[in-house]
Amino acid sequence: MMSGTQYKQGDVVLVPVPFTSLKEAKQRPALIISNDAHNVKVEDVVICGITSNIKDEPYSIILEQKDMAEGKIYFLSRIKADKIFTIHKAIIKRKLGIVNAKVLERTKEEVKKLIS
User: Fold this and answer.
1) What 3-state class would DSSP assign to 13?
2) Could you read off the pLDDT of 87-112 as tens digits, one per residue?
């Protein structure tokens, strides 16, 4: 049986995100993209990294404070739909907020483009 906070698709959380070399990690915001049916059944969630480096790159979506349905994002950022990780819920430091439905849908579209 699972315990603790239940995270939902669209939540922005603070997590240790590894660099692609997997040798180091930094505390970064990330967007939970796994669906709620999955999230309630298992101890892991699927996330996309979020960066404050706002350089226009493929598979990325600008994230501003106005895009938050709840909570705060402190810097103009980009959701990187090509930086996808599966993490254990226990390493989530805290929930920062929730993106609005439009941003969540755009993120899903970018993930679909990436794997199509």
Assistant:
1) strand
2) 999 999 999 999 999 999 999 999 99
What CATH number should be reported for the domain holding residue 68?
A: 2.30.30.110
Residue with tokens 């995270």: 7
- For residue 33, tell me if it sits in a domain: yes
Does the global pTM surpass 0.85? yes
For 92, the domain range is 11-115
74 occurs within a structural domain: yes
For residues 99 and 71, the answer to whether their CB atoms sit within 8 Å is no
Number of domain units in the chain: 1
The answer to whether the CB of 67 falls within 8 A of the CB of 100 is yes
User: In degrees to the nearest 10, what's the CA dihedral of 99, 47, 4, 94?
Assistant: -60
Helices (H), the chain: 36-41, 101-115
pLDDT tens digits along 12-26: 999 987 777 888 888
Nearest to residue 35, comparing CAs of 93, 111, 115, 113?
111
